[in-house]
Amino acid sequence: MAPDDSDDKNPVGAGIARREENVATPANDSTGETSAVRSVHIKETTTTVHWEAPLPPPALLEQYDQVVPGLARQIVEQAQGSESHIHDLKKNALTAAIEYSTRGQWMGFIALLAILGVSAFAIAMGAWWVAGIALSVVTGTAAVFVLGTLRKRDEKRQGE
Predict the structure, then answer these.
(1) Whether 79 contacts 53, CB under 8 Å
(2) What's residue 28's pLDDT?
C-alpha cells in the first residue's frame, strides 16, 4: 500500500485531504426578522487508497461491508474465482506445451525411422550414395538437436 499522505485516524493508511470552513448566516424568527446568527459547519474529505494485492486490506473490507452488507464476501469470492481462473489457464498452457513437445518428439522419431528405412532399401538395391545422403541427413539433424540442447542448458546455468 502506498498512501499519498498518512493519517492516524484512517485504519487503511490512506491519504486524506480535508477542508473545513465555518459559515455564519442570519437566522429568521417567526416574525421574519433577523435576530441571531446561525453557524453552519461544512466538511469535505477526499480519500485515496492504493494496494497491490488481489484483496483490499481487511479494514477496508470491513468498511465496504458496513456500507453494503455482504460486499466483503462478494469481493473475496470474486478474488478467489479470479485466482482459480488464472491457475486453470496456467495449467492448460503447461499441458498444451507438454503435448506439443511430445508430439514433436514422436514426429521426429517417425521421420528417423522413415529415413533409416529408405537407407536400408537403398543399400539393398545397391544405391549406396542414396543411403549415404540419407544417413548424412540423420546425422546432421541429430547434431543440430544435441548442440541446441547443450546451448540451452549452458544458458540456464549462466542465468542461475
Answers:
(1) no
(2) 57
70 backbone φψ class: left, alpha, beta (φ>0; ψ -120 to 50):
left
Between CA 148 and CA 134 the distance in angstroms is 21
For residues 59 and 12, the answer to whether their CB atoms sit within 8 Å is yes
Q: What is the pTM of this model?
A: 0.48
- Per-residue pLDDT of 130-147, as tens digits, reads 999 989 988 998 888 889
CA 149 to chain CA mean position, Å: 30
Tracing cell 479494514 back to the chain, one arrives at 59
Measure the CA dihedral 139/142/143/147, to 10°. 180
Residues of the chain under the 50 pLDDT cut = 1-17
Can you list the alpha helix ranges (DSSP code H) found in 2-127? 58-67, 71-125
Give the Cα separation of 74 and 71 in Å (integer). Answer: 5
